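S2.1 Query sequence (Vacuolar calcium ion transporter)
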Amino acid sequence: MSTKPNRGAGECTPLIHDESSSGDDGRVVQPQQRPFAYTFFLNYNHTPGKDSNRLAVRSLAYTWHVTKVTLLSNYVNFLLLVLPIGIIAGATGWNPTAVFALNFFAIIPLAAILSFATEQIAMKLGESMGGLLNATFGNAVELIVSIVALKDGQIEVVQSSMLGSILSNLLLVMGMCFFLGGLCHRGQTGSGTEQEFSAAVAQTTCSLMTLSSASLVIPAALYAVMNQNGSDDKFRVALVLSRVTAIILLILYILYLGFQLRTHSNLFDAEGQNIAEHEDEQPKMGALSAAAVLIAVTVLVAICAEYLVGSIDDIVESANISKAFIGLILIPIVGNAAEHVTAVVVALRNKMDLAMSVAIGSSIQIAMGLTPFLVIVGWIINRPMSLHFETFETVAFAVSVLVATYTVQDGKSNYLEGAMLLSLYIIIAVAFYVTPSDALRKATSLIPG
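Output structure tokens follow.
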């Protein structure tokens, strides 16, 4: 005898849980004595008019249903109230600080909706294609913001945001999962317990992260040696090396996707946690509707990103903070807020394999997929985007990967390890915050590709 598992809260968990049930014919039976206003505005599964014989009424009702489901998909969506104000602020030239702040908060719910729409489409495509879609669009906000910044010549911001996204996943998110999950499941005093996850997956992914770290250290080391010898070709050599390395990393990332989604998918679904999380969940909208939401939200993200990136230079001058801090700490918050909450929630429910797949999986997507892809995009549009990061950024990344690897290699975690990861993230954040705005500026950002 088996029972359905309780579905954990996540990015697709509705804000309003109605009490609808399924009848013998599979159709949704609506709860009794619910006022029309509740059903129209807050019922997640039904909207009056969807079954109308009139095409116009049915179309309007379904459009409202898709809108309602999207708005109720995540708690952070209340920040959508900021969206029109942010667009107006950017279009009419408000104070740069206001433009940055408003569009910063506007992108957070848009990122959550992107994730929700992607998940809805993925449910229709099956496990393998759905996983590939999630891997492709999982960091869509970071990609859009980075392409806008790259086009604007903000290479330092692009590099810092890529590094910041990796560090926020490896240290902040994984640290919060270990710390809060460890406190919640610490066991009896004197007989403490640890949370467990797949050690094989952790070792594989950490090996890939170590390789990614090497792909940044090698260009930095080569540049330093050539600079010490007074070579005039150091910029060109570092750029050529970065582009070749980017191609290799992208090929390796494709192999990793095949390893994860096809040949060794059993390793990445330890104890069936992913199945248990979604086996009783049905799509809330059709694939075409989800695709329309995806396209519309992508356009809005691009508009907000344009205004956000355009205000960075003025923010740096007026607030006297470095672009590295904006890219490393602030921008990753925009794209990762919703999935960060998801990882912590599933860690509290002792589903550590799911939490690790969000934290480390997203880091690999950025380090081996998104960052090399941006190097290629920079090559195409004649922007010198390279894997030669500033020395301090490279060292911070390498140390973070080293600490994270030692922390997860045994397949167990506790709140002390979480506190260690969080401490390192705070130290790095403070270091970049106190650094003067021009101290980390590289001459390479001015060299033509």
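The CA atoms of residues 247 and 372 lie 7 Å apart. The beta strands are 21-22, 28-29, 187-188, 191-192, 195-196, 412-413.
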